[in-house]
Design brief:
This protein has 201 residues and is mainly alpha-helical. It has one domain: Iron/manganese superoxide dismutase, C-terminal domain (minor pseudopilin epsh fold, 3-Layer(bab) Sandwich). A three-stranded antiparallel sheet has the order 2-1-3, sandwiched between helices. Helix 1 runs antiparallel to helix 2 and helix 3 crosses helix 7.
């Protein structure tokens, strides 16, 4: 039986579409090199597991499982990230529809939400992500952090929006100025995609 493989998703826009906030050089490096590395890593580990089983060889399951989770998490988070970005538009981009309603209900205003999400992105330790979850138990949006790619996401906490805080996401354009990169992010958020994710729950 042929084993299924992870594949690198195509971007839903051109490599220069996010400029001036994310350059073509930065986007190509991030998507084609870094994201591809997580896809390759996950597939290689799955092959390693299959080969070990067929050869009846025992492997260090704990180490492989940890590395596999890291690479799959990287693949999933990046796949979400590309889709919650859109080409720069001259008109100011703000949420509308259901996502606007739940953010205002939870945080009081979009500006309060934006401020809290920005602080979550700035303060995540080392390499990590800021994430907007939706708790299906409470019917509330929740801002969280994901360190490295350790998602540990349960079905009751689907992801609405992510922001990659790894240095590889911004160093070409912003060097060590992570705060400037986070500020730029708000100019290219695809709120239509975020809203669609919410409506599909």
């Amino acid at each position: 039986m042929k084993q299924a493989k992870y594949t690198l998703p195509e971007l839903p826009y051109g490599y220069n579409a996010l400029a001036p906030y994310i350059s073509e050089e930065q986007l190509r490096l991030h998507h084609d090199k870094h994201h591809q590395a997580y896809v390759n890593g996950a597939n290689a580990l799955l092959d390693k597991l299959v080969n070990a089983r067929q050869a009846k060889n025992e492997i260090e399951v704990k180490a492989v499982a940890r590395e596999l989770s890291f690479n799959i998490g990287g693949h999933i988070l990046h796949s979400l990230f590309w889709k919650n970005l859109q080409a720069y538009q001259k008109d100011k981009i703000l949420p509308s529809g259901k996502i606007k309603e739940i953010l205002e209900d939870e945080f009081g205003s979009f500006e309060v939400f934006k401020n809290e999400f920005t602080k979550a992105a700035q303060s995540v330790e080392g390499s990590g992500w800021a994430v907007l979850f939706f708790c299906k138990m409470l019917k509330r949006p929740i801002i969280g952090q994901v360190e490295k790619h350790n998602m540990h996401v349960l079905p009751l906490f689907p992801v609405l929006m992510v922001l990659d805080g790894w240095e590889h996401a911004y160093y070409v354009d912003y060097k060590n100025d992570k705060a400037k990169y986070i500020d730029a992010f708000w100019n290219i958020v695809n709120w239509e995609t975020v809203n669609k994710r919410l409506e599909e729950l």
